[in-house]
Write a structure and sequence with these properties.
The protein is mainly α. It has a domain at 28-54. It contains two helices and no strands. It has helices at 17-40, 44-59. The longest helix is centred in the middle third of the chain and has 24 residues, at 17-40. It is elongated and about 70 Å long. The chain starts with 16 loop residues before the first helix and ends with a helix.
Length: 60
């Protein structure tokens, strides 16, 4: 089996344009899904902070 670390010294090869476009498209779709999930999900950290602060204020 060939040592893959020996290939690190070789110059980089150009990636085909179609592959670059596909990767950038996939990244854009993933980012869109992440932003949509954030938009429609609860911010759990904020909810926990607000509940604990309300409980502290109610106990005073």
């Amino acid at each position: 089996m060939e040592n893959p670390f020996k290939q690190l010294d070789k110059p980089l090869q150009e990636v085909p344009l179609e592959l670059k476009e596909k990767v950038m498209h996939d990244i854009a779709i993933a980012k869109l899904f992440m932003e949509l999930a954030e938009l429609f999900s609860y911010n759990i950290g904020h909810i926990i902070d607000s509940v604990t602060s309300r409980r502290k204020n109610d106990n005073k």
